[in-house]
Design a protein that fits this description.
By secondary structure, the chain is mainly α. Helix content is 60%, strand content 1%. The longest helix is centred in the middle third of the chain and has 32 residues. The protein is globular and about 70 Å long. The structure holds protoporphyrin IX containing FE. The site of protoporphyrin IX containing FE has 27 residues, from α3, α5, α6 and α9.
Length: 434
Amino acid sequence: MSKTNQTNSVVKWVDDRLPVFTFMQHELHEYPTPKNLNYFWNFGSLAGIVLVTMIVTGIVLSMHYTPHVDYAFDSVERIMRDVNHGWLIRYVHMNGASAFFIIVFIHIFRGLYYGSYKAPRELLWMLGVLILLLMMATAFLGYVLPWGQMSFWGATVITNLFSAIPLIGEPIVTWLWGGFSVDNATLNRFFSLHFLLPFVIVGVVVLHIVALHTHGSNNPVGIDTTGNDDQIPFHPYYTVKDLFGLGVFLVLFSLFVFYAPNYLGHPDNYIPADPLQTPPHIVPEWYFLPFYAILRSITFDIWFLDAKLLGVIAMFASIGLLFILPWLDRSPVRSARFRPIYRQFYWVLVIDCFILGIVGANSPDDPVFSGLDGFQFIHLGMMSTAYYFFHFLILLPLLSVIEKPDPLPASINEPILGGGGNAALAPGKPMEKP
Ligand code: HEM
């Protein structure tokens, strides 16, 4: 490893003993990156920045929050009214959770489109799926802390799902609750775990980045770029591009924090938790809606497995199957740009996930279209759940065999400079004198 080219004597002294500057120069400065990355490659670094923001705001919130059923709700109200800038810190944390999921969902769908989960990035992808699971657990635990009506009833519904497991289900639920109902012991352990898990996420993100830097980024064309002139140093090209993306994100994020801070939340969570009063509709936060729809879409028993258990299995399977995605899609071509059939079905999947979200937000027995009473959200939910599993478990393995991909370019430069273009005029190359 070459040493840092910094001339500052203090930097050199430190670097000789602990090569942090050399490390940063390699991984953030010289790091060879494909030259054609588009804005979808901004979302990884954006996710990292939001993760740090969530941890910082979360630590400040925890200085003022009281994890006790008698005080939790009021302590949050106190943060909002009496703590200096408490309202801002809480709104950044609340809306930060939504932003985090939007960013990570885009990051995942980018990976699906450009085949970033394929060899040699399978472990990078699997670590990502693990991060997603940890994020979901953290968000669920955090939502319980304000101890509003949705906190309490959301926690009750979701923890109760484990009771569907035969024989050991009930004892598991009692163990999770730390008693015989969602109560103070539950709130305490949820707070403790909500504090812990983000640091576990940081650990997995470090592994994610190590795996990324082992083979480098994939790119929109999806071909390997190592060892040719398709790469540029990360700095300044992508540091600047990432900073620009961050600026755009901050503008949009500020609009929510300052002008519509409760837009994505549920008003019932401003009602203190009441174990004797069930809210008319218990709905999870928006980012859980597609999974909630899958959970509710199984309404029939199969053999000795009852509908509730099958729903729980289907919900976990919908994320679990992402772990084996690199082995379900065996097509040698990564990017959807060169996969004419996959490209179409990719968009069907995107629409399907949106529909699942809409289904999750509605009552199962409400009609989808007014005047068409026979077609209810439960039916739409069943159809879209079926498509979700069909897409991953049947379509992708099938397309790997039957689809004829378009020819791949030999390099990133080739489509731009190959066919009659003037290589001398390529960006980054000095123009020849006439
Ligand atoms: C805390 C959450 C996450 C953070 C901070 C994070 C961070 C990053 C960063 C910085 C990159 C490089 C920049 C980029 O390609 O956008 C990256 C790449 C990648 N991430 Fe994540 N990630 C997160 C979650 C996920 C999840 C949930 C998945 C998938 C389920 C995932 C899959 C990938 C893949 C496949 C790549 C390589 C993309 C490519 O080279 O084309 N990541 N991640």
